[in-house]
Amino acid sequence: MTTEELNELKYPIGLFNCPKDISDGHISQWIETLEVFPDRLENLVSELSENQLDTPYRPGGWTIRQVVHHVADSHHHSYIRFKWALTEDNPVIKYYYEALWAELSDSKTGPIAMSLLHLKAVHAKLVFLLKGLSEAELNRTFIHPEHNEEVVLKKNIGIYAWHCNHHFAHIQNLMKREGW
């Protein structure tokens, strides 16, 4: 497999490209993506067999099961990061080693139903929170220690909407390639 082919499998919708000026329309669209994602994901994966769930979406990549658990873990972290930024002055958030989390037994062998339920709850809380934010709150920030980057909350909404579509595409593309 060429590097280009591998990159297409890794980033099937491309990297997140944040608009220079984030409009109310962008924010509304991203929140809608977050709102419907748990049901979209559940509909996509609910009929898969155990063997299908344990199929990597790309060579050297996570299995579908790991992706589902990763999304729940990641979005749980995101919700907490929003809360920190709304209640603290530009906090440095806690970084977590997602690749190591994906290797833990709950991610490698756990039933996806628990992460799908968790994702529904986290997204319900997150979407409710986001819909009520003022412009000033949307412009609050946190520091991501991985690159010592200041992240504005309204951009983080877009990042997580992209994250939903990014991992959805991993699973959907694998299912198409395999004819499932």
Which strands sit side by side, in order, in the main sheet?
1-2
Classification by helices and strands:
mainly alpha
Basic shape = globular
Q: Report strand %.
A: under 5%
CATH topology: Four Helix Bundle (Hemerythrin (Met), subunit A)
As for the number of domains, it is 1
The percentage helix is 55-70%
CATH architecture: Up-down Bundle
Tell me the CATH superfamily. Answer: dinb family like domain
Write the layout of secondary structure elements.
Layout: H1 3-10, H2 24-45, H3 50-53, H4 64-87, H5 98-101, H6 105-109, H7 112-131, H8 135-138, E1 141-144, E2 149-152, H9 153-178
Antiparallel strand pairs: 1-2
Helix pairs in contact: 2-7, 2-9, 4-7, 4-9
Task: Please explain how this structure is put together.
- With 180 residues, this protein is mainly alpha-helical.
- It has one domain (24-178): Four Helix Bundle (Hemerythrin (Met), subunit A), CATH 1.20.120.450.
- Helices cover 65% and strands 4% of the residues.
- The protein has helices spanning 3-10, 24-45, 50-53, 64-87, 98-101, 105-109, 112-131, 135-138, 153-178; strands at 141-144, 149-152.
- Strands 1-2 form a two-stranded antiparallel ribbon.
- Helix 4 (64-87) runs parallel beside helix 7 and helix 4 (64-87) packs antiparallel against helix 9.
- The longest helix has 26 residues, at 153-178.
- The protein is globular, with a radius of gyration of 17 Å.
- The two termini are 22 Å apart.
